[in-house]
User: What shape does this take?
Amino acid sequence: MKEHKDEIVALSIFYNQPYRLRELTSSMVKDVLEKLKMDKPLLAPLYVWQAYEQLEGVNGKSPKDELIALVSLIRRVTGMDDKLTAYDKTVDKNFQKWVFDKQAGALKFNEEQMNWLRMMKEHIATSFHIEVDDLDYTPFDAHGGRGMMFQLFGNGMNKVINEMNEAMAA
Assistant: This one.
């Protein structure tokens, strides 16, 4: 940690920015993962996760995906999370809260909309972010892609995408 404190400070600055200024892409996380594995294989995210398990405990099981482990570790080291928690579990919890808050008001999602929201949540849990262009690819394309999303959410489609990105990362 001491050796990499400058990198940790940079990550902390990154995560303290307003959400719109810090859009994290899957390719950015993959680049960091590959650099870690090449330069310092002993700092591979799953090894660091195991060290945290022994030192302070974690919420849930070790993630199977190194990218999820890396984002989880970044969130823990920067203070976003008090305890190391698999990022996909964080997204699940945030999704439940977001849907509950939405449905508590006048807005009520129908079953087809909920299916889309769940697919989007799963995408965010493994890719850390979703954009309109992602709707042209798997699994969305098999369900009508961008056109179906617009049919289901209308002009509010971009708002839903933006809200989900922000709420899932909280």
About this structure: Helices lie at 5-15, 26-39, 45-55, 66-77, 87-104, 111-127, 145-153, 157-169. Residues 5-85 form one domain. The longest strand covers residues 58-59. The chain is about 60% helix and 0% strand.
